[in-house]
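Before a colleague's protein record goes any further, I have to sign it off. Thanks in advance; the entry in question is below:
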Amino acid sequence: MSVTPSSETEPGGPLSVARRVIEAWRLRSASAPGWTMCVGVVLAVIALPVAAVLYIAATPADNDWPHLLQSVLPHALQQTLLLAFGTGLVSLIVGTSTAWLVTMYRFPGRSLLDRLLVLPLAIPTYIVAYCYADLLDYAGPVQTELRSLFGWATPRDYWFPPVRSLGGAVFVMSAVLYPYVYLSARASFVQQSVCALEVARTLGRSPMGTFWSVALPLSRPALAAGVALVLMETLSDLGAVQHLGVETLSASIYTTWLQRSNLGGAAQIATVALGLILLLLAVERIARGDAKVHHTTGRYRAIPFQDIEGWRGYVAAALCSLPFVAGFIVPFLRLVDFAIGHASVAIEGGFLSAAWNSVFLATTAAAATVALGLLISYAPRVARNRFTRFAARSAGLGYALPGTVLAIGVLMPVAALDNGIDALFRSTFGISTGLILSGTVAALVYAYVIRFLAVSLGGIEAGLERISPNLDAAARALGETATTALWRIHLPLLVPALGAAGLLVFVDALKELPATLLLRPFNFETLATHVYAFAALEQIESGALGALTIVMAGLVPLVVLHHAIAGGRAGRSGS
């Protein structure tokens, strides 16, 4: 019996034509020179600041290396390493222990504490440092009340731990940054198989033994990633370490550049900071190794809570409350108290203009960063070659750059472009254009985009992964180009991911201090620099309204992020 081929599948039929179009698209997408070139240009612009720092360090006006190696670097490097080690260790202990308690046990207030433990991330480290310095200094309310209560007259009559010290900096930064470890550990613990934990218990392991022998090793990649984030934030901090008197590499860069007017020396210190960042990334990769944790079954059951009853339950609640109280409640209440009493002073001191500048800068940076993040994330989908995949992985490394290092790197290419434009107009039209980009908002936005591109890339790539490649193939079969398919098909589906990425970048840009301090236009204040200026004059109460505004803006993405992580417990419906 013979079968007559369908007119749709025979050569020249609609399905046959569609297959040929899709095959041709797949062949072209292996190169896609236009998209590959666009991604290459973006990657070059992002990498330019790092190249500029290395160039300035290699060609300084004076050879500062002997002086730096003898006088500056030993102390700054020691202080940086001690601060990073102390902050990382305390954050690891606090974040992991609290995450394990709220994931595995039921005790009074557990559900509420699960949400509250992430809130310290809403407060920048420099604001917490200002609050604790004001609270615990000799003239602060704590020591004043102690002297009044016990009749002490001078500092010789008693001892009080100095907050303006390396130990004080470790305490402050750990209180703010431990949620990075908490979130990573929490996400890892909720996804672990209940089967593995139950097997450990049937083999005689105690709850603590199960934690050490099963849960902790399985969470090693997540813990390494969380600690790496803590260390990168510690290395890039400027406001907190300056206020607390800790001379880290970041503070040394700022001092050498602005106070000693030595850009070459600052760039040379910046190369040491870059080396530390690269070493940190390498160590983090080694710590994670190639470990991949996956379930060997398609069945999932929610991890059953174990009840902690009686006084032990209240002890567990108290232990989980301490980090939240230290990292959020104490500084937040201090800011509220100051803001209520000094709101008029803050408004007269430039709060409104600083708030407008911050919103404008953060909105512009968020829009530019999301647009570039979309371009870089979409390119490997269209141009499926090694370079676009490499670019997508490398474009986010700017997040690891300390703000002081980034500012030095941005300054040189922007100044070179200004000089080139000025020389062109002088030779062609006989007029001088002056500085067009240097010391302007454009330079700041450029720095923000490089710094926070990783934030947008993560969310956008996750959104694109949820869109089936079959939609791309169908669109190309119907005559859409890569650009029109992005505009008409992908963009509407990516609106939630783009909005979330923009929100995260907006909040991060609102809080950014080091790069803003070094690159802002003359007499241009943001909320971060507004607070910094008052804190430098020991008048934090006058900047409290600005600090409180930054904190309130930072709470929104934290609530969304925590909801996503807590909702990912293995065994939940739809997880």
